[in-house]
Design goal:
Shape: globular
Strand content: 25-35%
Strand order of the largest sheet: 2-3-4-5-6-7-8-9
Structural class: alpha/beta
Helix content: 25-40%
Distance between the termini: 42 Å
Order of helices and strands: HEEEHEHHEHEHEHEHE
Number of helices: 8
Length: 267
């Protein structure tokens, strides 16, 4: 993952506490804004699907400032399906996944054209990265249409848990050699991260959404996986991080983060 410069300062609240006290500019810069989203149709076989991309700000934890945009993706059927064989989760063939990843990357490129300086991190599945044809489509998507398409990074999802480090390094190095930045999504699991240490990755991402940050045990677990992730790659992006723990995450080794809203639930 290349250096993500943040040439502009930005905050998402007025910097006031409920008691009218002031908070620091750093705390304001980590405040999570509402997410923006867009949807587009996608045909897989004979099924018409709706793809929704949700864009959330990506923060540079070291510079305490925004550094770009992170895209997450969800799929649903465009129309309700009834009958004995309908209503299940859409299943995509590898060729459909490859086409979907390329279409998603194109939307990321559109976002890159319409936003300020910074990077756009777009999702793609491991099956696409593992295919020579898929690597070609991700490598050259948008390079002719944008003077700085190298700011369009790819977050690799759904890699097999038993994937050999040598295979991973071989597939990803083909794309990285052409200046397309990659991050591998890893589960927040210490044994998995330890196995990835020999893969020579430049970037790794962790989804911390399921961790309980309200307890000391949960915060310690998050700290341990971030420390382990930093041994895997020099750039560590964490997802689902409470803004209040941004400084702790930076100290543990995380370099970038997508903040989450903390919502109180009453039972």
């Amino acid at each position: 993952m290349p250096e993500l410069h943040a040439p502009y300062a930005q905050s998402y609240d007025d910097g006031r506490r409920p008691d009218n006290g002031r908070v620091s500019p750093e705390a304001r810069s980590f405040a999570p804004p509402a997410a923006d989203s867009l949807a587009f149709p996608f045909i897989a076989g004979r099924a018409e699907l709706s793809v929704r991309l949700t864009a959330r700000p990506l923060f540079d934890l070291r510079r305490r400032a925004p550094a770009g945009v992170h895209l997450s993706r969800s799929l649903s059927r465009a129309f309700p399906v009834s009958g004995p064989f309908g209503g299940g989760k859409p299943r995509l063939e590898p060729a459909d996944v490859m086409k979907l990843d390329a279409a998603t990357l194109q939307r990321g490129l559109d976002l890159l054209r319409n936003t300020g300086p910074g990077a756009v991190v777009s999702p793609a599945c491991w099956s696409t990265i593992a295919s020579p044809r898929g690597r070609f489509s991700l490598l050259y998507a948008g390079l002719k249409g944008h003077p700085d398409a190298t700011r369009l990074l790819v977050e690799v999802l759904a890699a097999p848990p038993d994937l050999e480090a040598e295979t991973l390094q071989s597939c990803m190095s083909h794309i990285e050699a052409q200046q397309r930045g990659l991050l591998l999504r890893s589960p927040p699991d210490l044994s998995t991260l330890h196995r990835l240490e020999s893969a020579g990755l430049k970037g790794v991402s962790l989804d911390l959404t399921g961790l309980d940050f309200d307890t000391a045990i949960g915060r310690q677990a998050a700290q341990q996986v971030m420390v382990a992730a930093r041994r895997v790659a020099p750039s560590v992006m964490v997802l689902g991080l409470p803004a209040s723990l941004a400084e702790e995450a930076a100290s543990a080794g995380a370099t970038h983060a997508v903040m989450c809203e903390r919502v109180a639930v009453t039972v």
